[in-house]
């Protein structure tokens, strides 16, 4: 499938401080034509028609009324995190746009870290490391 045929997805950027991770961007490129916010703002008239989805990574890009009004073909907002508290679901729904998220994406890693912290605390691992450190 040619890139022009793929549905457009708006992302803040690729890489950098707030952009989508490069590995994740590579995965998204298999299914979507990625349009960065910079590209969108540089040519709103053309790009707005191509965008059918917005991929929210670390609460960015911010979804507000102005953005929704500028995306006439928007169908879905995919949120890469667990919660959707940063999204105004009622407003988004009023535009006929669906919202998805990944509620179980960090369940196992969170449990792993919790267990590691409990074991480290019970065994006084941090204190032992400090006492045995050179210097």
Automatic annotation (TrEMBL):
SUPFAM superfamilies: Formate/glycerate dehydrogenase catalytic domain-like. The keyword RNA-binding does not apply. One of its GO terms (molecular function) is hydroxypyruvate reductase [NAD(P)H] activity. InterPro entries: D-isomer_2-hydroxyacid_DH (IPR050223), D-isomer_2_OHA_DH_cat_dom (IPR006139). Keywords: Oxidoreductase. It comes from the Eukaryota. Pfam families: 2-Hacid_dh (PF00389). Residues 22-113 form the D-isomer specific 2-hydroxyacid dehydrogenase catalytic domain. One of its GO terms (cellular component) is cytosol. The keyword Ribonucleoprotein does not apply. This is HPPR reductase.
């Amino acid at each position: 499938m040619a890139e022009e045929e793929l549905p457009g997805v708006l992302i803040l950027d690729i890489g950098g401080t707030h952009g989508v991770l490069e590995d994740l961007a590579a995965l998204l490129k298999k299914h979507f034509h990625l349009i960065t916010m910079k590209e969108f703002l540089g040519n709103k008239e053309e790009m707005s028609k191509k965008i059918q989805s917005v991929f929210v990574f670390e609460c960015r890009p911010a979804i507000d009324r102005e953005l929704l009004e500028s995306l006439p073909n928007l169908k879905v907002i995919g949120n890469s995190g667990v919660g959707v508290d940063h999204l105004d679901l009622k407003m988004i729904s009023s535009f006929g746009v669906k919202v998805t998220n990944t509620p179980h994406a960090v369940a196992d890693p969170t449990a792993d870290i919790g267990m590691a912290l409990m074991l480290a605390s019970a065994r006084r691992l941090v204190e032992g490391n400090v006492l045995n450190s050179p210097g």
